[in-house]
């Protein structure tokens, strides 16, 4: 759907497809249970975030539908990644968002390989389509040594400019790696200790890559290097922080500091270049949304709609706390002097009076 960002009025709404959000109790899967996805209580078929470059809008859903629309609501193309590349086997529901790079739409699928079950394996992959036609441009398999739920990653690739061109960084399945978004060629990979699935993704800022190992593992900082020399092992990690790291929310960098929030509400500020802890504070509630930094402030939004605003400084300074109605899992965004928040009940636009 398209909503007027100034008035909140619905401009148009189009149906892309349908599907069933199948769920199961939160426990380990065994045998044939692993051959298809079931959805975690905190997300559903519409968890992936749409992507736009101002020309087209790309939407992707947990049933595999991938489609492009113009700003008037006309569908330009549609395809289904499960039909093209096989059934999703990620344990708790496909949630990876598409990204745009020049004339390409890029999606990732990191899922249980089923390799230890015998029979047909399931492939993890990156795939790129032309944004105007939906034509397949390239596909790269991303198979690792991980097994079962370790293979799963719910993250979204991050594209940034370094080494003289755009590079795409992907995290998950006990691995961080980098690709050329134009060709899908893997440029380097950093293998990590074994853990269980990955939700939080990489943050890139000022020539640094910050990322957490899966399942509340350590947070690492890597300098991206020069002339294509990428990190190849843990000796390339500049610093590591092990306490109160997030399982779900991504870190954010502002004013030379890295800010993060653990799922149970421990907020921390680190010096981004050294990893030195500047402050640590417990905030009210549990968190799934990632913090954002705007105009020297960091916004931490918890699951119950409470947003804590702190100064992006080396000493803890709480500026405000605000409350909206409804469960809030989606991360806030800022645009043209407003902050937009989406709860289970409503979409909010907040601006200074």
Entry keywords:
353 residues; mainly beta; 4-stranded antiparallel β-sheet; 1 helix
Helix/strand-derived category reads: mainly beta
Largest sheet: 4 strands, antiparallel
Give the helix level as a range of percent.
under 10%
Spatial ordering of strands, largest sheet:
3-4-5-6
- Sheet-strand content, in percent, reads 35-45%
Q: What is the residue-averaged pLDDT? A: 94
Shape: globular
Rg of Cα set? 20 Å
Count of DSSP helices? 1
The ordered string of helix (H) and strand (E) elements is: EEEEEEHEEEEEEEEEEEEEEEEEEEEEEE
What is the terminal-to-terminal distance?
A: 28 Å
Low-confidence stretches: none
> How many beta-strand segments?
29
What does this structure look like?
The chain is mainly β and 353 residues long. It contains 1 helix and 29 strands. It has one helix at 81-85; strands at residues 2-3, 10-12, 51-52, 57-60, 65-69, 75-80, 99-101, 104-109, 125-130, 136-141, 158-162, 165-171, 175-179, 186-191, 203-205, 208-212, 219-223, 237-241, 252-254, 257-261, 266-271, 277-282, 292-294, 297-301, 306-311, 318-323, 333-335, 338-342, 347-351. A 4-stranded antiparallel beta sheet has the order 3-4-5-6.
Topology:
Layout (H helix, E strand, L loop, with lengths): L1 E2 L6 E3 L38 E2 L4 E4 L4 E5 L5 E6 H5 L13 E3 L2 E6 L15 E6 L5 E6 L16 E5 L2 E7 L3 E5 L6 E6 L11 E3 L2 E5 L6 E5 L13 E5 L10 E3 L2 E5 L4 E6 L5 E6 L9 E3 L2 E5 L4 E6 L6 E6 L9 E3 L2 E5 L4 E5 L2
Antiparallel strand pairs: 1-2, 3-4, 4-5, 5-6, 7-8, 8-9, 9-10, 11-12, 12-13, 13-14, 15-16, 16-17, 17-18, 19-20, 20-21, 21-22, 23-24, 24-25, 25-26, 27-28, 28-29
